[in-house]
């Protein structure tokens, strides 16, 4: 019985929320909405040189993102030589595969890419809770029913962390930020060996 | 009304600038290109690649150098706006992605093999294979253009047509690969040097 109690206590501790584990302080005064500006300019063609490392495989290519309208983005990946590997449309909560090379047409892969790109392109987010840490403002949001924590440093979005069971699952790092363009973006997965690196060549 | 007249004038002008060749003219071009391809031992050229996606405001422009040596050595070296080299050599593709080296064995991949064959043939312009393509020949103002439509269903899933533009000498000026969606990749060659000696060392990463 005592063992059961101890293990339940331990379980509760280990299942504690992500902010609690990180010692974030709850901040009631913060805003209720936040904005991710990095793919929000419909007049811009966002073009990134991309490298994808998945387990021992290394792929390269160009990731092209275009805002077509409100809550509407096209996300296309081509090789450096121009061959299209996949072409997705995000429209509000809908997601459509316009094209995908047979070799990449795997449900599990499409799902991972869909979830990651959704974070990149989602502009306006409702804040569930807000926190503060030394110099950082942190906002808890939901994307596809998963908790995402948005970190702002001096009102600039620098990272997003997706959690699973109160633990970091995927980290999105924005750096070399110039106005509303993140020249470098890294997406690191914890549960699978996957890393996506993006370097802007936006012309 | 006047607009309508202009419209029809423009329409007829654009039709006139691209007319179909007669069978004898088509045969003459084919003979010229094939003869040119046979005597071509090496090609060294600058290229500009335009990736056109309908939803973008502008084409994505990349630039670099192409080297080719018979029978099957090809190197595409992108220098702007990023450094990326891909070498097709025997059964292997060697990639140098800003210093990160990688290689892919084509031996087992039929699609890659076919692609490589197409690349080599399109650089030389010699794709006149009636079994693989439906071929149509056009005359433009100063140039000639041939459209190759793949008959094979598997490749037509990726490329609906190749359009190759030749100058009067039968040299390839431009290769355009059109996807079924209408998006395309266009490669324009400039400062092309034919049969300049190229060392094998050029084709190593």
Distance between the termini of chain B: 62 Å
**Gap between N and C termini of chain A:** 66 Å
Question: CATH homologous superfamily of chain B, by name?
Answer: Lipoprotein localisation LolA/LolB/LppX
Note poorly predicted spans of chain A: none
| Major β-sheet profile of chain A | 13 strands, antiparallel
Gyration radius of chain B, to the nearest Å? 18 Å
Q: How large is the radius of gyration of chain A?
A: 18 Å
Q: Please state the second-level CATH architecture of chain B.
A: Clam
Please give the count of helices of chain A.
3
| CATH third-tier fold name of chain B | outer membrane lipoprotein receptor (LolB), chain A
Q: Mean pLDDT across all residues of chain B, rounded? A: 87
User: What is the helix/strand order of chain A?
Assistant: HHEEEEEEEHEEEEEEEE
Helical residues, percent of chain A: 10-25%
Coarse structural class of chain B: alpha+beta
How many strand elements of chain A?
Answer: 15
Tell me the greatest interface: A-B, 27 and 26 residues
Write down the CATH class of chain B.
Answer: Mainly Beta
Portion in beta strands of chain A: over 45%
The DSSP helix count of chain B reads: 4
User: Taking all residues together, what is the mean pLDDT of chain A?
Assistant: 90
Protein name (chain B): Cell envelope biogenesis protein LolA
Organism (chain B): Bizionia arctica
Keywords (chain B): Signal
InterPro entries (chain B): LolA/LolB/LppX, OM_lipoprot_carrier_LolA-like
């Amino acid at each position: 019985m005592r063992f059961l109690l101890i293990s339940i206590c331990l379980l509760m501790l280990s299942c504690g929320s992500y902010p609690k584990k990180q010692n974030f302080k709850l901040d009631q005064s913060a805003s209720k909405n936040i904005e991710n500006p990095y793919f929000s300019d419909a007049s811009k063609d966002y073009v990134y040189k991309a490298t994808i490392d998945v387990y021992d495989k290394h792929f390269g290519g160009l990731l092209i993102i275009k805002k077509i309208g409100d809550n509407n983005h096209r996300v296309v990946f081509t090789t450096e030589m121009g061959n299209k590997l996949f072409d997705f449309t995000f429209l509000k909560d809908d997601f459509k595969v316009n094209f995908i090379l047979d070799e990449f047409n795997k449900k599990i892969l499409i799902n991972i890419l869909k979830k990651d790109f959704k974070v990149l392109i989602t502009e306006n987010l409702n804040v569930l809770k807000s926190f503060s840490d030394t110099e950082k403002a942190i906002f808890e949001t939901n994307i596809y029913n998963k908790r995402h924590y948005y970190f702002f440093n001096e009102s600039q979005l620098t990272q997003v962390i997706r959690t699973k069971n109160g633990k970091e699952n995927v980290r999105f790092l924005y750096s070399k930020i110039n106005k509303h363009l993140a020249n470098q973006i890294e997406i690191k997965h914890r549960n699978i060996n996957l890393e996506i690196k993006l370097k802007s060549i936006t012309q | 009304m006047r607009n309508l007249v202009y419209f029809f004038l423009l329409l007829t002008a654009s039709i006139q600038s691209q007319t179909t060749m007669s069978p004898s003219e088509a045969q003459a071009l084919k003979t010229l290109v094939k003869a040119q391809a046979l005597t071509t031992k090496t090609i060294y050229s600058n290229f500009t690649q335009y990736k056109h996606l309908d939803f973008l405001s502008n084409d994505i422009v990349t630039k670099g150098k192409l080297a080719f040596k018979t029978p099957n050595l090809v190197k595409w070296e992108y220098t702007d706006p990023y450094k990326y080299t891909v070498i097709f050599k025997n059964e292997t593709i060697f990639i140098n992605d800003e210093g990160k080296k990688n290689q892919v064995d084509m031996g087992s991949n039929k699609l890659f093999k076919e692609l490589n064959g197409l690349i080599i043939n399109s650089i030389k312009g010699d794709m006149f294979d009636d079994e693989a393509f439906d071929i149509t020949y056009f005359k433009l103002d100063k140039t000639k253009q041939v459209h190759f439509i793949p008959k094979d269903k598997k490749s037509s899933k990726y490329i609906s047509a190749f359009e190759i533009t030749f100058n009067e000498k039968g040299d390839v000026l431009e290769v355009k690969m059109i996807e079924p969606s209408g998006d395309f990749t266009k490669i324009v060659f400039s400062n092309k040097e034919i049969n300049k000696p190229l060392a094998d060392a050029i084709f190593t990463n």
